[in-house]
Structures are given as C-alpha cells and as structure tokens.
Amino acid sequence: MDKGILDKFKFNRLAEKMRNGDERAAQTLYKELIDKVYGFCLSRVREKAAAEDLTQDIFVKLIGKIGTFDKKRGNFLGWFWQLVRNTLTDYYRSGGRNVLSFSEFPEEAKIEEVASYDIRDQLQQKIECINLSELIRTFAADEQELFEFRFVAELPYEEISNIIGKSEGTLRVAANRLKSKIKNSFKI
After folding, report:
1. In CATH, what class is 1-100?
2. If DSSP codes are grouped into helix, strand and coil, which group holds residue 167?
3. For the residues 96-123, what does the mean pLDDT come to?
4. Whole-number Cα distances in Å, 19 to 13, 75, 121, 126, 188
5. Class of the CATH-defined domain 103-188
C-alpha cells in the first residue's frame, strides 16, 4: 500500500482521537508536524522568532479548531495545511512582515549542521545552499509556493491540490519543471 495513503489514515486517526480528547494523539500529531510547520513558516518570514511564534499559533489554532475537522469532508493533512496557509495569510494581513521566500530566509536557518566535521564539506554545502537560494528567488510566486509545499513541507500532490486549488497533474508537471530548472542550473 502507498505510504501516502497510510499516512493519511494515520493522521486522520490521530486527529479523530485528538478531537475526542486524547492528549497522546495530540502530542503525536505535534511531534510529527512541528518540524515541517516550522520549516514552512521559516521559509515565509524573515526571522526565526517570527517563525517560532507562527508555529506556536498554528498549533494553538489546531487545538481550538480540531472540533471542526470532519474526515468525511476531507483528510486531516489537507485540512491542517489549509489552517497553516490561512494563519500565514492572516499574519500578513494584520501587518506582519513581508512574505519571504525560501531563498531569502536567514543563512543560518538554511544550513543544517552536518555530521562530518570536515570544513570542506560544510563549505561546499553552504555554497550549494546559497546557489539554490539565489535560483529559487528567480521563481515566480506560485512556483515558490509549490516549491515550499512540495520540497520544504514535503506534502503530497493531493494535499497541495486541495490547498491551492490546482489539479494534481498540473502540480506534478510544475514540480517537474522546477526540478528541471534546478538540474539545468546546477548541471546535475
């Protein structure tokens, strides 16, 4: 069975348990989603502190709105990522900082610690990250959003389709074009 389908069932089951007051299910959802949500928020705002605040707000909203989740009307991940997207939209409408694409967020947030202590590896990764950031900055806004949903938040096409209202096929083609742009730029 497809891992995406298994994840969908897992998240739907956890959401239902959370809705019924199961704190362990809520903790599991939090642990499963926190890194992706934070990474997604960080890809859209200028500061770590703002991304942390938004991430916290999203999970507080999740607690407050979990009662409105109905698996008969859709799956949890699509519902949740729409909540994330709406929270970010509200943030900017209420005077939040300007939207910042993945390519523009602080360098220290882009470069993860590497297991090896070889400085050459770290330098090479830093250079590749900077080059990728510069390339992504040239993408159109909708391409940047697709890049963030697909490659930062690692959402399946079905979920992205539900969030932004484009067909899965259209998204797959657009994502493949993005991959081609990246491969051609880096001659991979």
Report:
1. mainly alpha
2. coil
3. 43
4. 10, 14, 46, 43, 46
5. mainly alpha
